[in-house]
Amino acid sequence: MNRRHLEGRISRLEALGAKRKTAEPLLMLIESAEPERELLPDERVVIDRFRDAGNMVWARRRITSDPTEVGQHSEPGGFLVDLLTQFHVQCPWRKITGACRMCQGTPVAGSNSESCKSEQEVEQ
Ligand SMILES: [Zn+2]
């Protein structure tokens, strides 16, 4: 393999990398406390993205009749504290694994994850 051949391969690889899109984050739809029901004629479903952890985004479905509504979005790497708190209280992962990835790194999880450990206090 000579230098010219190698340079050609490098430029082809660079062109291939430039064409590739960045990966879309995995969207985790959390089951809403709202019961499932038929939509009324003026209603539709929007997605509230309440926790953005970069490669993973947690979201919920919500019914709205507001035609301008587009769903709530947290900043990249951020969270919507009211929705995150609401889901953290019910989150099933804490019971299974003892930790909640959805809230990890946010004040909702607590600085020493004490709130994730005290399930009995939360459930009372
Ligand atoms: Zn949580």
Q: Quick summary of this structure?
A:
This protein is α+β, with helices and mostly antiparallel strands and 124 residues long. The protein has helices at 3-19, 81-90, 93-97, 114-117, 119-123; strands at 26-30, 44-52, 56-64. The protein has one domain (23-123).
Could you please describe the fold and organization of this structure?
This protein has 124 residues and is an alpha+beta fold. It has one domain (23-123). The protein contains five helices and three strands. A three-stranded mixed sheet has the order 1-3-2, with helices on one face. The protein is elongated, with a radius of gyration of 21 Å. Bound molecules: zinc ion. The site of zinc ion has 6 residues, from loops.
Q: Ranges with pLDDT <50 over ≥5 residues?
A: 111-124
Biggest beta sheet summary: 3 strands, mixed
**Strand order in the sheet with the most strands:** 1-3-2
Order of helices and strands: HEEEHHHH
Summing up helix and strand content along with how strands pair, one would put the structural category as alpha+beta
What integer value in Å does the Rg equal? 21 Å
| Overall mean confidence score, pLDDT | 82
| Individual helix count | 5
Coarse morphology: elongated
Helix content: 25-40%
List each distinct ligand once. zinc ion
Euclidean distance between termini CA atoms? 71 Å
Based on DSSP secondary structure assignment, what is the total number of beta strands?
A: 3
- Give the DSSP E fraction (strand runs of 2 or more residues): 15-25%
Can you tell me the number of structural domains?
1
